[in-house]
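Notes from the pairing session

We agreed to fold both candidates in a single pass and log them together. This is the raw record for the first candidate, unedited. Please don't reformat it; downstream parsing expects exactly this layout.

Candidate A
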Amino acid sequence: MLAPTPIQAKASSSSSELYLSQARASGSTEDCMALYEKWAASYDDEVGDSAQNYVAPVLVAQAAIKYGLSNGATNSVILDAGCGTGLVGVALSMAKAKAIDGIDLSPAMLSVAKRTGIYRDLTVADMNRPIDKADGTYDLVSCVGTFTLGHVGPDPALRELVRVAKNKGVVVSTILQEIWVPGGFQAEVEKLVAEGLVKVVTEELIDYVKGHGDKAVLLILEKIDRD
C-alpha cells in the first residue's frame, strides 16, 4: 500500500477534524447517528493517523487485561459498549479474548465492526437508555470514546454498565476530561460507590486523542458482590 502524499494526509486530517468537531457538537441522538453513518467508512484511517493519534482504545484494552480479566482473556465474556468500528474489540482479541459482544448507536459503525470477525454479537443500542442485556452477564465491560461531548451522559449509562457486569466484574471506561466534573460523571461514580454497588479500582488521567492534546479519565470500577 502506498503511503499517502502530504496533500492526501492533509485532506484526511482536515476531514477527521471536521467530523470530530461535528461529533462533539451533536445536539441529538439523530444528529449523532447521521454523522457516524457518513464517517464509518473512513473512521479507522482518520482517527488512527498521526494528526489524531487516537490512543485510548489500546490503553483501555491494556488496562482491561491488567485489571479486569481475572479469568484470563480466553475465558472471559466481554461487552464492548459503544464499540464503534471495533478498535477496542480488536485490541482485546489480540490478547486472546474470544467472547466479545458489541453495542453501538450507529448501524454503519457496527457494519464495519462486523467485518473484523471478532465479535460474537453486535446490536444497535442507545446508551442514553437502558441496555437490553441481562443483569450480571459480563466479566468485563469496556466503554471507550462514548462518554464525550455530544454523546452519552452518566445517567443511566454508568449504572447500566455496572448492572450488566457480573459480581466482581469490572467496568473500564474513558470520560473526556472536560466533562468529568461538569458533565456529572464524578458525581455519578460517587453515588454508585455510596450505594455500595462498586468500588473504584483506578481513576487516572490518560492520553486520549494525542493529536488534539485531549486527555480522558480512565475509570475502572469493580462491581461489589452483594450475594
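Candidate B (folded immediately after A)
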Amino acid sequence: MKLDILSERAKACAQKRRHAAGEDPQKRRQILDGAWQVFVDQGFDAASMNSICKAAGVSKGTLYVYFENKEDLFVALVEEKRKDFFDGIFERLADAGTIEERLFAYAMGLSTQLNSEEVIRAQRIVISVVERMPELGTRFYDAGARHFLSCLQDFLQRETEAGTLKVTDTELAAGQFVELSTTLTWRPRLFGRRPDAPSEDEIARVAKDAVRVFLAAYGT
C-alpha cells in the first residue's frame, strides 16, 4: 500500500513537470530565439523551417506543434520583439512629470528603438515580401506600429480629458507626434541612407523640437 501511494505521488509530480504539447514556455523561447537569428541572417524568403529547426535545436515535428507555418512564427516574433522593445516606452507616459517631460521621454524611447538595428532589420524583412504577402504586412503593422499608436492615443485622450491637452482627433495627433519624433532619423535608416543609428544627442534634439511643435498645436 505504501509503495502504491509513493508511486501515485511520483506520477502526479511528473505530470506537474510536464507541459501539454505546444505549451512549454522554454521550448517556445528556444524556437523563437533560433528563428530570429535565421530571419535576420537570411531574410523571410530564404529562411526555411529546416534552417530554423537547426538553429533552434528542435525537430520539425516539435516546431509545427508550436507554430503552424513560417508566417505565424514570424508574427509571433514581432509580438515578442514589440514587448521587448516598446512596452517600456509607454511607462514613460505614466511617469510623474510635466506633459513636456513625459512626451520628451516617450519620443526619446520611441526613436531610439525604431532606429535600433533589430527593429530596422525586422521592418526590412517585411517590406521585402509585403507585395506578395500583404497579410504578413498587415499582421506586422497591427502587432507593432498600430499597437503603440493606440497606446499613445489613449494617453492623449486622458490628457485632453484632464485639460492638459486639447486634441480633437487623437489618431491624427498620435501619428503626427510619431512622425515629428523620428524626423530625418528613422526613415533614412530604414532605406539605408543612414547606415548607423543616430546619436543620443541627435535623437534628443529632434525629440525636444517634436514636443515644442506638438504642444504649440495641442497644448493648453
